[in-house]
């Protein structure tokens, strides 16, 4: 996949790179971020491994991780990824998204999702984008529903979390037939 950079006045998304270690470590340094995530990035070594793995997976076409840069500060405030990429089936997942709590409930997530959906539907010409989250991650579920994704169901006993407990996964999607209506909704929300 070619280098992808999408941006507007609020955020810039670009591929993560090794030079992002310090900035990502700073953004990731809050235990609250990792409560529902499959990784924990509270050490320099964890962040280095995270970025190295992301670059390897990007080179293999498995996934594509973006650094999320808040335009007003020019700081990395999180990461988000394309996962489960299947161009033959014209679909992918947007996930492994995390943000520093300073931007929770801000315009960052809405702008990121808008730019990624727009890229997926209007440049990559995909048919489906899926988003999933854990059954106990209510903040994430509300954020996904707020952007207009459709709840498709629950994958029971889908994953074992890092502490060994079972996670049921809530599955959401946006399909190409939803995009024009959703795009209008996004634009109205972003203009507020």
What's the structural domain tally? 1
Strand tally is 8
Q: Average pLDDT across residues?
A: 95
Under CATH, the homologous superfamily reads Gcn5-related N-acetyltransferase (GNAT)
Helix content: 25-40%
CATH architecture: 3-Layer(aba) Sandwich
> What is the molecular shape?
globular
- Unreliable stretches (pLDDT < 50, length at least 5) are none
Radius of gyration: 16 Å
- Provide a count of the helices: 5
| CATH level-3 fold name | Aminopeptidase
Q: In what order do the strands lie side by side in the largest sheet?
A: 1-2-3-4-5-6-8-7
Task: Find the structural class using helix and strand composition.
Answer: alpha+beta
Query: What top-tier CATH class fits best?
Result: Alpha Beta
Main beta sheet: strand number and arrangement? 8 strands, mixed
